[in-house]
Design brief:
The complex is a heterodimer. Chain A is mainly α. Chain A has 13 helices and two strands; from the N terminus they run H-E-E-H-H-H-H-H-H-H-H-H-H-H-H. The chains are: A mainly alpha, B mainly alpha. Chain A: Belongs to the binding-protein-dependent transport system permease family.
C-alpha cells in the first residue's frame, strides 16, 4: 500500500505553537506502541542475529557466522525451496479460481450479491480455523473427502490424503484456495468495475470478440489491480505457517517445513535464538524487497495509465 | 428448460443453441428465441452459481451439522453430516474437557479480541486526528514510519517481542498479547482514521470550537459521530484479526489457562493417547467460526469499505 504524504495540508492557516505539541500528544500512544513493539524489535533482531544466543547462559558475539551457517544449512535451503514452490503453486491456483469468480460475480444478475458473500465467507475465518476444519475433512477414517470418494465408488479404500507429500500438498492448496480465493476475487472485482463501460461497449461495436476484449482491454486496464492481488498473494504465501503446522505438522518426512516454520523451530523449539534471528532478517529482507518491487510495479502501472 | 447444462459458462450455452429464425412470423419467433436463450443463459449461470456456493459453503455446513452428532457418531465420517441418532452436545462436552474448559478459552479469546478492538479504535482515533489536523515537525516521516511497518512481517520479530514482553512483566499475559495485536493493527487503522478525519469539513470543527467544545470533548462529542463508519471498519478488522491470530498467541502464551481458542485447539488436534477426538475438533471449529461469520454478515458494508480502502491505495 503506497502512501503519498499529503503536503497540501501543510499549507493551511498557521496555528499557535502549542498546537504542535497537542498534535504530538495525539499521536504519542500510537508512536509509543510502534516504537516499542516494532522498531525496537526489528533492531533487536538484527543485533541478535550477530550473536550465539541461547535461551539460558551468556550470549556471545559471533559476527556474521550465523549467516555463513545458513548457506550450508540444507534444512534451511530446503525450507526456502519448499516455500518458493508453495508460493508459486498457491498463487497460480488462487488466481486460476479467483479470476473466473470475479468475472462471474461482476455480472448484474439476480443473487449475485449472495454469491459474492458466500464466496467471501471463508476469508473472514482464521487460517488456523480453516486448517483445523480441513485436516478433519481430509482425515482418512473420520473425515469427509476420502470416505465420500469411497462411498461414490471412485476409490476402493479411503485415501490417507495427508500421508504422502503430493496429496497432502494438493489438499493444502485446495484448502488455501477455498480460504483465500474470495479475497482475491474482491480485489480483482474492484479492478473490473473500474473499467469504463463505454470503452468495452465501443470495442464490442467495433467487432472485438469476447476473448479479444478480455485479452486486449480488460487485462491491460487491470494491470495495477492484478499486480496488487499478486503481491498480496505472494507475501501471504511466503509467510505461510498455520496450515503446515496444523495440517501436517511439517509434513511427510519433514518436507513441508516453510521458512516461518523453520524459524519457529529454530527459535522456539531448539532455542537457537541468535540463529533464528538471522533467519528472520533474511525473511525480512525478502519481504522488504518484494514491497519495493510492489511499489515499483504500481508506479509503472501509474505511468502507463 | 434444459436442466442438463451443468456448470457451463453462459456464453457456451448461448453458442451451443443455434437459433433458427423462421421467415413467416419472424418477429414472434425471434422474440421467443431470444427469451429462450436468455432463460438458458440464466439457468446455466445459476447452476454454476449453485456449484460454487456448494464448494464454499459445504465445509462450514458439514462441520456445523456434524458437531451435533453423538459421541460415537462423531468419530465416523460425516456421511450424511447431520445427526442420525439424535441431536447431541457430546462434541461440545468433550471439547470442554480440554485445557481449562471451552468457556474459559472462548472468554480468553473474547477478552483479547475486544480489548484489541477498544485500544485500536481509541489509539488510531487519536493518531488519525493528530495526523489529519495538526502540524508538527517530522509529521510525514512519522506517518510513513507507521505505515512502513506493514512491509515487515511480524513473524520475523517474535523473539524480541517475547523478550520485551518478559522485561515488562507481560510474558504469558493476555494484555501483552493485546498490545502486540494493537500494534499490528495500527498501520491500517491509523491510515483509515486519518482519511476519515480528512473527509470531515474543517468548518464543523470551527463551529464547535466557537460553541466552546475543545480537545477531547470536541473529538468525542462532535467528530466521533462523523468518523464512526471509519471507526467501525477499524473495529471489525481488529476483532477478526485478533480472534483468528495463531502464531503470536502460540509463542507468547505459555500457560494452559491463558490459551486463546486457536492455541487450545492444538491440544485437541494433538489428541490423547494417540487418538484424536474429531467431534471436539468439529465443535472447536464451530466455536471459532460463528463469531467471524456473524460479525461479517452484520457489518459486511464496513468490512468491504476497509478492503476497498486497502485495495485502492
Amino acid at each position: 500500500m503506497t502512501v503519498v504524504p499529503n503536503l497540501s495540508r501543510a499549507a493551511g492557516r498557521p496555528k499557535p505553537r502549542s498546537s504542535a505539541w497537542r498534535g504530538i500528544l495525539y499521536i504519542a500512544p500510537a508512536m509509543a506502541l510502534v516504537i516499542l513493539f516494532f522498531v525496537i524489535p526489528v533492531m533487536m533482531t538484527a543485533w541478535m542475529s550477530l550473536h550465539a544466543w541461547p535461551l539460558m547462559g551468556a550470549q556471545r558475539w559471533i559476527g556474521i557466522n550465523n549467516y555463513i551457517r545458513m548457506i550450508n544449512d540444507t534444512r534451511f535451503l530446503s525450507a526456502l525451496r519448499f516455500t518458493a514452490l508453495y508460493t508459486v503453486v498457491a498463487t497460480i491456483a488462487i488466481f486460476a479460481v479467483a479470476f473466473p469468480l470475479a468475472l462471474f460475480v461482476e455480472k448484474h444478475r439476480r443473487f449475485v450479491g449472495a454469491y459474492r458473500t458466500v464466496i467471501f465467507l471463508p476469508v473472514v475465518v482464521g487460517l488456523a480455523t480453516a486448517s483445523l476444519l480441513w485436516v478433519w475433512l481430509a482425515n482418512v477414517d473420520s473425515g469427509f473427502i476420502g470416505p465420500l470418494l469411497r462411498a461414490l465408488g471412485i476409490v476402493e479404500r479411503s485415501p490417507n490424503l495427508l500421508a504422502s507429500f503430493d496429496s497432502a500438498f494438493l489438499t493444502i492448496i485446495i484448502m488455501v484456495v477455498w480460504k483465500i480465493a474470495g479475497f482475491t476475487m474482491i480485489i480483482l472485482l474492484t479492478g473490473l468495475q473500474a473499467i469504463p463501460a463505454d470503452i468495452v461497449e465501443a470495442a464490442r461495436i467495433d467487432g472485438a470478440k469476447r476473448w479479444q476484449r478480455f485479452r486486449y482491454l480488460t487485462l491491460p486496464l487491470m494491470r495495477r489491480t492484478i499486480a496488487l492481488a499478486l503481491i498480496i498473494s505472494v507475501t501471504g504465501s511466503i509467510l505461510a505457517f498455520d496450515q503446515f503446522y496444523i495440517m501436517t505438522a511439517g509434513g511427510p518426512q519433514n518436507r513441508m517445513i516453510s521458512v516461518v516454520y523453520y524459524i519457529f523451530n529454530q527459535s522456539f523449539v531448539s532455542f537457537n535464538l541468535g540463529y533464528g534471528a538471522s533467519l528472520s532478517i533474511v525473511l525480512l529482507a525478502i519481504l522488504v524487497a518484494i514491497s519495493i518491487v510492489q511499489l515499483w510495479l504500481l508506479k509503472v502501472g501509474d505511468d502507463k495509465a | 428448460m434444459t436442466m442438463t447444462q451443468t456448470a457451463l459458462p453462459p456464453t457456451m450455452t448461448a453458442a451451443g443453441h443455434p437459433i433458427e429464425v423462421r421467415p413467416n412470423p419472424a418477429n414472434e419467433a425471434a422474440k421467443l428465441a431470444r427469451a429462450r436463450r436468455k432463460r438458458n443463459c440464466a439457468v446455466a449461470y445459476h447452476t454454476a452459481g449453485v456449484a460454487i456456493v456448494l464448494f464454499f459453503l459445504a465445509p462450514f455446513a458439514i462441520a456445523f451439522l456434524a458437531s451435533f452428532r453423538s459421541g460415537a457418531e462423531g468419530m465416523t465420517p460425516p456421511l450424511p453430516p447431520w445427526p442420525t441418532t439424535g441431536f447431541s452436545l457430546d462434541s461440545y462436552r468433550s471439547l470442554d474437557t480440554f485445557g481449562a474448559g471451552v468457556w474459559q478459552h472462548t472468554l480468553n479469546s473474547l477478552i483479547v479480541s475486544l480489548a484489541t478492538v477498544v485500544l485500536t479504535v481509541a489509539i488510531s482515533l487519536l493518531a488519525g486526528y493528530g495526523f489529519s489536523r495538526y502540524r508538527f515537525p517530522l509529521k510525514n516521516t512519522l506517518f510513513v514510519l507507521i505505515i512502513a511497518t506493514l512491509m515487515i512481517p511480524f513473524q520475523s520479530i517474535l523473539t524480541p517481542l517475547f523478550i520485551i514482553l518478559a522485561k515488562l512483566g507481560l510474558n504469558n499475559s493476555l494484555f501483552g498479547l493485546v498490545l502486540v495485536y494493537v500494534t499490528l493493527q495500527l498501520p491500517f487503522s491509523v491510515f483509515m482514521m486519518r482519511n476519515a478525519f480528512d473527509a470531515v469539513p474543517k468548518e464543523i470543527e470551527e463551529a464547535a470550537r466557537i460553541d466552546g467544545a475543545r480537545d477531547l470533548k470536541l473529538l468525542v462529542r462532535v467528530l466521533l459521530p462523523l468518523v464512526l463508519p471509519g471507526a467501525a471498519t477499524v473495529a471489525i478488522f481488529a476483532f477478526l484479526n485478533a480472534w483468528n491470530e495463531f502464531l503470536a498467541a502460540l509463542v507468547l502464551l505459555s500457560s494452559n489457562d491463558n490459551y486463546t481458542m486457536p492455541v487450545l485447539m492444538m491440544a485437541v488436534r494433538a489428541g490423547r493417547l494417540g487418538a484424536i477426538n474429531w467431534g471436539a475438533v468439529q465443535a472447536g471449529v464451530v466455536v471459532m467460526t460463528i463469531p467471524c461469520l456473524i460479525i461479517f454478515l452484520l457489518l459486511q458494508r464496513y468490512y468491504m469499505r476497509g478492503l476497498m480502502a486497502g485495495a485502492v491505495k
